[in-house]
Every structure is written in C-alpha cells, then in structure tokens.
Inverse folding.
C-alpha cells in the first residue's frame, strides 16, 4: 500500500512540472510576440530579411505610432475659465459640460487631431483645459474657442434658385480674368521648356499630385477625361508635346502634356444589382440570405434577350428602371476590382456567375468588347471660379426671430406613463410668444435647432405650442437626452469663457523631451535589472526577465487602449517599474528567510510567495487607490501619471506573482541550479 501511494505521488508531481514548463514557455513566447507588437518595425525588417533570403514575405504589422501628448509631440496647452456669475448654482455643472461639448465640436471642426478637452471644478472656479497636440499656431482656434455658443431656431427655407446679380457676374468676370492670366503665365513657362514636374508640384490643385505627379493614364474617348483624348486626336498632338492652349472645365483650368500612347480593352456591360442591408448606398432592408436567394433565381432566368427587362423589374440600381442596367462602354479601372475581374472573364454575349461587391450581388452581361486607343497625359490643374463659388446655394433652413437668448433652460424629463426620457424647454415671455407663432405656422413641419451653425435637433411640430413650455420627444436614451439638454443650455445660458493661460511646446523641444524620457526609462530599467542580478543573482536575473514582459505589457496596453503618453505618464511607468521590483524583492527576501529555517528550495519558494502575497497585495492596493484618485480628481498631465501608474501596478502583480513564480519553479526542477551561491544565500553547515 505504501509503495502504491509513493508512485502515485511522484506521477502527480511530474504531471504538475510539465504543466508549469508549458506555462513558462507560453510566457516566453508571449514576451516575444508582444514585443513585436509594441515595435512592429523590428518584425517588418525581419520579414524583409526573410523575403530577401527565401522569396517569402511573412505577414507585416501596421506600424502605428504611440499616441503622444503635446509635451512630447509639441502643441498648445490652453486653460479657459467660464464666467458663471449669471448662472444659478444648480445649473453650473451642466452648463460647463455643455460649453465643453461645444468647444470640442469647434476644435474638431478646426481639424485638430485627437484634442484632449477636460473640465475642472475647484474652489468655486469652473475651468476648461484644452490640449491641442501637434498644433503650433492656434490664433484662429483660440478666437473660435473663445466665442460664446450661439443657439438658433430655424424654419424650412423658402428660398429658390435665383439669377445672378450684375455685381456677382462682374465679380465672376474679374476672378476668371485673373485666373486665366495666371494660367497663361504658367503655360508660357512650360512652353519655354521649364521642368513640367516642377510646375505640377508648384501650381497644380490636384490633391494627389505628390503621388501621381499629375499623370493620368488610359484616357479614352468614353472616359471621364474624354475631352483630352478628343483634343489629342483633333490637333494631332504628338507624344512628349504640350497642348498650347488652356482648357477650361468644371475642374478648373488645365495645362497638359501628351506623354505616351497606348491601348485598352473596353467592355460594353449591363448589370443587375440586388443589394442587401449594410451594403454601400443601399436603402433596402433585405437580408444577405434573401438577396442571395433572389440573385440566384435571377441567374437561372437571365438570358441576353430578357436581361434588360429583368434589370428594370428587379435591379436595385436606381438607374436600371430607365436604362435596363446599361453601364455603357468602360474599362477595368471604371469599376471596383471584383466587378472588373468577373467582367473580364465573361465572353462576349455571356452572363457572369453571381459577383459580390461592396454594393451587393451582381449579374454582369457583356454585350460587346473592343480595343481602343488610349492616351497618358500629365496635367497642371489650376483654379477657375464658377458662379456657384460666388452665389450661395439656396438655404435649406432660414433664421427666425427666436434664438438662444429666449431660452431660459432645457432639462431632461420623463414621461410619467412610459418612463421615456425627453427634453423640456422653458422660454421667457418673448420667447414663448415667438415659439407659439412659429409652431402655429409650421404644424406638420420640422423646426431645426442649430448650435454654432450645426443642427443638433430637427423635431417635427405636432401642434401649436403656447405658454412658453415645449418638449422635444424622440427615441432618446437617457444619455442622449442629457447631451441634447446640455447642448441647448450651452447656447441658452450666457457662459462666456476667458483664456487664462496659453503654453506652446515646439516640435523640436517635444522631440528632445521624448528622447530624454526614453533614455531615462531605458537607463532606469537597466540599472534596476543590473542591481537585481548583482544582489540576488539567479532570482534577480529571473525577475529582470519578468520585468521585460512587464514593460512590453505596459506598452501593449498603451496601444490597445489608446493611452496618450506624456512626460508625467512616463514617470508613472518608471515608478510602476519600481513597484514591480519591490514585489520581487519581498518575495526573494522571504525566500531567504524560509530557506534559513531548514526548508528545501521548492518549498521555500512556495512559502515565500504565500507569505509575501499579503504585503504585496496591500501595498499595491494602496498605491492603486492613490493613482485612481489622481486620475479621477485631477486633469491634464497629472491624469496621465495616474493612468500609467494604475496600469503598471495592476500588471506588476501579474508579473511578480505569476510570471516570476513560474520561471523560478521551472528553474528549480533542474538539480544543477539548486546551489545556495546562485540564490545569494549562505550554504548550510
């Protein structure tokens, strides 16, 4: 019986050792994988090396940069204070949130990438802290941000298209004369032999000129740029020759050079489209399964003779009703890739199998095919004002006399029967009269509510509303109703903001700060690792290996959650590194004490982790509480410090308790390393 028990016990320990070894290998592999994720450039360079040696390119990783704060990237830090002197005490918090929402939309409209806008309420002051990373000259943004929000009530516009006035026509003629003169000057320089690429780079309006150099390929008589093909044919322009006239068109004034002839295959196609819910430009509620069944049935019915009628009857392409699905002559570049590939394989007179694109399911009927001359040109596109650039388009909404000054407040309220949230509006006496007349004349029509020129709600008038009270109903959630009320209050309540401070960090200074921060973090890591190895030897080395995973996991979390890294955030990371080391020091010192009592190596390690856990847990929880308080009650850079410190503390417990313990357990399975010297402890006498 005793022999049987002994064998059973040995088998169980051996099984446990293999599990631990598997976990250790997994953690090592995870360290490498996460390291490549954090630094994808290293993986991509390795892939290029493999491709050069074998011809096979491993999958590449997107090399997206970390989100850097303005102190590392450069940018502007603005602090505004809201004047709440005319706002009731109970409304001030909502008013501040409303102003924050308005400013955020203003900054987004200004084109600033990933702005950080926070509110701070301390000591009776109400402030907005705005970080505009990557923005150096923000004078226009400061002016825009500092304006008091404008709330407007508008009715449907009655204005129709009108004839241009003599003044507007004269303005157009002056603009066109100046633009023709400038274009003629550029053409003269090109005809004189000046480098055409340089002229394209300097003068062309083409947004893609840096990539295309103004080159347009495979122009045919039926393509979008057919006028160029017609001019080349009519005037006998030769390859390498400039067209010596200006071409005025909808795009602008063009100066072009014919660079090379060619040929393309054109196809005369018709198609039947059946789109389904979720497709681009599709308004149908048909499911993908139902659409697949329908297009399959049409495939069984379709012949060259009835294709046009089927398209008129069943195609969801809006133009099919009038043209029977006719797409006209076109080349492969005129269609999306999957459509072009399918059309190219269909013989003339044939109908394709079902083809799926981003627009839905298609059947393609190739009616004819031909080879046609094609031309490649290089173009300089210059501005040419159109009358629509001078005469504003008809207005969809027009202002009324009712505005934000007449709205006393907006608040979230709830229907007593259904519990559905809605937004209640309270107008002053003048506003109540104006709103009553406005709703009386627009029953059954919408009234638009604009904040800073953007429509935030277009409720439908159900009946005339008098008494200065109104409600905006809809399928709101509580959060949506609260946001709408905040936006309305932002334009109704007089909350001007004043710029208290402005701090600009140049990109060079930001780059220097980033470089120094990286060096500080690396030196700190190396010094800590070196100290651990010298003092604690093998356990110290294992702790250093675990710290590598700790660092990679932190960077992984920053990428995964979009954490904005600041100088204070890096300080939080370095501090959390110290917290992670503290946990390992506690465990190793406890191991020494347990070993001194007569325990063997493995039981000393197990007992050290058990007894050190409570101290590690309590110490990390207190640090975590402090960092959460810093994040929750502070703003700007201090908040970044609290966030990175919190992440670091959480991850440090994982690496200390799980990773370090796993590595030590696997190492101790080898008898050759069970030597007191390697663990920095004295040999027993």
């Amino acid at each position: 019986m005793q022999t049987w028990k002994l064998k059973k016990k040995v088998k169980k320990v051996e099984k446990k050792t293999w599990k631990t070894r598997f976990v250790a290998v997994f953690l090592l592999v995870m360290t490498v994988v996460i390291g490549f994720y954090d630094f994808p450039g290293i993986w991509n360079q390795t892939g290029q090396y493999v491709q050069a040696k074998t011809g096979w390119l491993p999958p590449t990783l997107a090399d997206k940069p970390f989100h850097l704060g303005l102190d590392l990237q450069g940018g502007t830090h603005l602090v505004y204070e809201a004047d709440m002197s005319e706002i009731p005490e109970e409304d001030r918090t909502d008013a501040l949130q409303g102003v924050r929402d308005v400013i955020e939309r203003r900054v987004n409209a200004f084109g600033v990438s990933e702005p950080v806008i926070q509110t701070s309420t301390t000591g009776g002051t109400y402030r907005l802290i705005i970080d505009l990373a990557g923005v150096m000259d923000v004078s226009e943004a400061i002016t825009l941000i500092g304006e008091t929000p404008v709330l407007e009530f508008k009715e449907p516009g009655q204005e129709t298209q009108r004839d241009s006035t003599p003044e507007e026509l004269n303005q157009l003629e002056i603009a066109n004369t100046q633009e023709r003169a400038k274009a003629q000057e550029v053409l003269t320089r090109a005809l004189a032999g000046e480098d055409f690429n340089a002229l394209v780079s300097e003068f062309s309006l083409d947004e893609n000129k840096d990539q295309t150099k103004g080159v347009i390929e495979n122009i045919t008589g039926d393509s979008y740029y057919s006028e160029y093909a017609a001019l080349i044919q009519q005037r006998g322009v030769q390859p390498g020759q400039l067209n010596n006239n200006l071409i005025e068109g909808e795009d602008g004034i063009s100066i072009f050079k014919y660079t090379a002839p060619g040929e393309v295959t054109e196809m005369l196609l018709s198609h039947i489209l059946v789109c389904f819910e979720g497709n681009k430009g599709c308004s149908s509620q048909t499911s993908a399964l139902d659409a697949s069944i329908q297009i399959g049935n049409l495939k069984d019915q379709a012949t060259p003779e009835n294709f046009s009628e089927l398209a008129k009857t069943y195609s969801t392409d809006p133009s099919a009703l009038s043209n029977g699905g006719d797409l006209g002559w076109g080349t492969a570049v005129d269609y999306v890739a999957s459509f072009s590939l399918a059309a190219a394989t269909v013989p003339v007179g044939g109908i394709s199998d079902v083809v799926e694109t981003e627009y839905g399911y298609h059947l393609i009927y190739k009616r004819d095919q031909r080879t046609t001359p094609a031309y490649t040109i290089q173009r300089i596109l210059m501005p040419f004002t159109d009358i629509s650039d001078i005469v504003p388009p008809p207005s969809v909404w027009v202002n009324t006399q009712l505005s934000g000054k007449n709205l006393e407040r907006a608040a979230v309220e709830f229907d007593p029967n259904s519990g559905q949230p809605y937004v209640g509006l309270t107008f002053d006496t003048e506003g109540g009269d104006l709103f009553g007349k406005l709703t009386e004349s627009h029953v059954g029509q919408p009234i638009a509510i604009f904040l800073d020129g953007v429509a935030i709600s277009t409720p439908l008038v159900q009946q005339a509303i008098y008494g200065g009270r109104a409600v905006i109903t809809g399928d709101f959630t509580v959060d949506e109703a609260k946001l709408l009320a905040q936006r309305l209050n932002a334009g109704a309540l007089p909350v001007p903001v004043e710029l208290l401070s402005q701090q600009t960090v140049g990109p060079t200074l930001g780059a220097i700060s980033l470089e120094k921060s990286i060096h500080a973090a690396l030196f700190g890591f190396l010094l800590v690792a070196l100290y651990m190895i010298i003092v604690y030897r093998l356990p110290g080395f294992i702790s250093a290996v675990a710290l590598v995973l700790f660092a990679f996991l932190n960077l992984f979390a920053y990428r995964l959650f979009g954490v904005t890294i600041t100088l204070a955030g890096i300080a939080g990371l370095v501090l959390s590194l110290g917290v992670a080391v503290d946990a390992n020091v506690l465990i190793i010192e406890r191991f020494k004490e347990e070993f001194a009592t007569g325990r063997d190596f493995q039981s000393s390690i197990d007992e050290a982790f058990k007894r050190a856990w409570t101290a590690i847990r309590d110490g990390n929880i207190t640090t975590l509480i402090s960092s959460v308080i810093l994040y929750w009650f502070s703003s700007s850079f201090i908040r970044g410090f609290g966030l990175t410190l919190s992440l670091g503390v959480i991850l440090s417990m994982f690496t200390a308790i799980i990773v370090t313990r796993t590595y030590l357990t696997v190492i101790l399975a080898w008898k050759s390393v069970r030597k007191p010297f390697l663990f920095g402890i004295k040999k027993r006498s």
In short: Confidence is low (pLDDT under 50) at residues 1-15. The radius of gyration is 36 Å. The domain at 68-148+496-504 is CATH 3.30.70.3400 (Alpha-Beta Plaits).
